[in-house]
């Protein structure tokens, strides 16, 4: 995993903890460990901050303390997000959604002497409904990042092998991999529960760039240039959602439309005597698939185009609260871009901050604020304008326009503020406030929506 922590932090999977850390911590208030899972990210392979502590696990800690000596690690967690519209939007209402995660990591070097080799598997369970669809009226940004359509009792997520070579300078992953776990991921993005932030800049999270919970056949090669920097290159199958089918086990190539090829450079410095940690990512990707342009949806011209994406991500500590690795005030800034002829979002921007460890008596509590702005492509806007002028619709009452939109789209702003409170070593509660300005990037369709939410995370 190379990126920077995404659902919660990042780290290149080390071995047995890679997934648990990622999973488990992905939504834990982030204390002590960097997490990746689910729209997440990673730190360099030579980072020493890749393991989730077995002492943070409610039931599996003692089991894993024994199994870890043989290179085996089990992980499981439960994340719930309850979100309610209190004013504006389509109407007032409340919905619940949850995700359960089950992970198995095997370090074959410990188990059988196969140096640097490990395998990783993650399965997911989802249930619930979308507050954005039902009550906010937003077809673009989910209020609850754990909600997905096409729910299944058990969905296979990732299943891959990892080989580390040259004293861990080279890291290779091969198998059923999620592009979003490897590229364009911030260590702090999923400290927020909205899909405006969690995971990646929204502009890049489209077909060729499948993020949680989608996985495809792929390979990622990461080379650690130095202890603080790396470059990585990938090659992934490009296929429409839901990749792997409803249950994640449909692994043949019948839905493949092309290949997605991303590249990314990362720099993770510690500035000054206070070691102000930074996570910097710059990258891009190209999808060889051909997508219908927005104009062709109206004219039936059959015109198609490829997709090219770019991203820049900055997470920089500006003040340190204590000596724990990521306890301090971080400024967060992200930008993502996708080809305007075919993309749902042309440009997306995030800017915000988190303050972790500011209360000495409660060092794992955290406060965060994030502002997101995004624009849809002009081609999509013009196609929707044409639909409106001609009285055309797609026969969906609530979302009658292209892109499943409730109206003609242009741009939108979304604000989230939250406070993460660890109740117990394995249980975290996060009260959340969200505000949607220009719901679904439309004007005068629905009033701005105010949302309150509660997220809980239990690490088993």
Automatic annotation (TrEMBL):
Protein family according to the UniProt entry: Belongs to the OprB family.
One function term, GO molecular function aspect: porin activity
Cellular component, GO, one term: membrane
Protein's name according to its UniProt entry: Carbohydrate-selective porin OprB (OprB)
Biological processes annotated in GO: carbohydrate transport
Pfam family, one: OprB
Lineage, top ranks: Bacteria, Pseudomonadati, Pseudomonadota, Alphaproteobacteria, Acetobacterales
């Amino acid at each position: 995993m190379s990126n920077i922590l995404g659902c919660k932090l990042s780290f290149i999977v080390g071995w047995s903890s890679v997934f648990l850390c990622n999973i488990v911590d992905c939504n834990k208030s982030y204390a002590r460990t960097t997490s990746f899972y689910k729209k997440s990210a990673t730190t360099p392979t030579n980072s020493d901050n890749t393991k989730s502590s077995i002492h943070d696990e409610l039931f599996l800690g003692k089991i894993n303390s024994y199994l870890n000596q043989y290179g085996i690690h089990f992980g499981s967690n439960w994340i719930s997000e309850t979100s309610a519209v209190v004013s504006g939007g389509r109407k007032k209402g409340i919905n619940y959604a949850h995700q359960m995660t089950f992970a198995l990591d095997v370090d074959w070097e410990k188990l059988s002497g196969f140096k640097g080799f490990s395998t990783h598997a993650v399965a997911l369970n989802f249930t619930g409904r979308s507050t954005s669809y039902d009550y906010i009226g937003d077809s673009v940004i989910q209020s609850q990042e754990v909600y997905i359509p096409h729910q299944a009792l058990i969905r296979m997520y990732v299943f891959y092998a990892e080989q580390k070579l040259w004293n861990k300078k080279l890291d290779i992953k091969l198998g059923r991999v999620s592009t979003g776990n490897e590229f364009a991921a911030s260590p702090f993005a999923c400290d927020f529960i909205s899909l405006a932030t969690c995971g990646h800049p929204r502009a890049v999270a489209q077909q060729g760039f499948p993020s949680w919970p989608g996985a495809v056949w792929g390979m990622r090669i990461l080379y650690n240039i130095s202890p603080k920097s790396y470059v990585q290159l990938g090659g992934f199958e490009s296929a429409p959602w839901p990749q792997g089918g409803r249950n994640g086990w449909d692994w043949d190539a019948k839905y493949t439309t092309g290949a997605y090829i991303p590249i990314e450079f990362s720099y993770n410095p510690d500035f000054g005597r206070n070691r102000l940690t930074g996570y910097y990512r710059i990258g891009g990707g190209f999808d060889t698939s051909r997508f219908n342009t927005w104009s062709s949806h109206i004219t039936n011209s059959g015109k198609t185009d490829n997709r090219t994406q770019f991203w820049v991500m900055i997470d920089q500590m500006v003040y340190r609260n204590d000596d724990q690795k990521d306890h301090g005030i971080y400024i967060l800034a992200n930008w993502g871009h996708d080809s305007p002829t075919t993309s749902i979002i042309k440009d997306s921007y995030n800017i915000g901050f988190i303050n972790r460890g500011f209360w000495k008596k409660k060092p794992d509590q955290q406060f965060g604020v994030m502002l997101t702005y995004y624009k849809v492509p002009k081609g999509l806007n013009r196609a929707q304008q044409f639909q409106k002028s001609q009285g055309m619709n797609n026969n969906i009452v609530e979302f009658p326009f292209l892109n499943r939109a409730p109206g003609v789209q242009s741009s939108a702003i979304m604000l989230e503020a939250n406070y993460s409170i660890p109740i117990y070593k394995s249980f975290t509660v996060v009260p959340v406030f969200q505000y949607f300005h220009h719901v679904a990037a439309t004007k005068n369709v629905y009033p701005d929506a105010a949302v309150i939410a509660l997220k809980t995370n239990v690490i088993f």
